Amino acid sequence: MTEPVYVTETRTAYDTVAENYAELLKDFLQDATWDRAVLTAFAELVGEGPVGDLGCGPGRLTGYLKTLGLDVFGVDLSPAMIEVARRTHPHLRFEVGSLAALDLEDGSLAGALAWYSLIHTPPEELPVVAKELVRVLRPGGWLLTAFQVGDNEHRRIENAYGHDIAADAYRLDPDFVAQLLTDAGFVVDARLVREPGPSFEATRQAYLTARKEG
């Protein structure tokens, strides 16, 4: 089957920016109070069991979740991001993979993190990703997702992290994401929408936690 153009472009874009992305964001959590708060809450909800950081990039949150006591590994579409993650966190497992077709067994995860990793998939294609997240979580397993808030509007990104790239991104409506997860078989537990923080944030940011039914 031919790979969708948006998938190829997203991979190429993140391969291009991987090193700069990792360097620029390596200390970001130090001043990201709300990020740390929701990640800590997620860790407490999950407790024991395998956790997938799905769309892990260079592994900065994978490493942080490990410090919170989780049995965590990372998956990312970009081989260059995975290379950086393995180099930076040699004690953790990282694999190349796609959110739309995860190489994981049914019900194998206690938790899944989708941190700004839904934003490059067209909204009409997100039900496939949501169903895949449900598939890999065990009954009662937890999902945490974060994204930029908008009205599902499309943005074309042509420059990022000091590089010329070509990729699509979407600012998502929290109500849309909540309904998407509900339709897939999740129970939405909590949502938080905050105002833009650092200078590079142009819109409000959202976090949603949801639990797989069962």
UniProtKB/TrEMBL annotation:
Keywords: Methyltransferase, Transferase, Ubiquinone. Residues 53-141 form the Methyltransferase domain. One of its GO terms (biological process) is methylation. This is Methyltransferase domain-containing protein. InterPro entries: Methyltransf_25, SAM-dependent_MTases_sf. The keyword Repeat does not apply. GO terms for molecular function: methyltransferase activity. CDD domains: AdoMet_MTases. It comes from Amycolatopsis echigonensis.
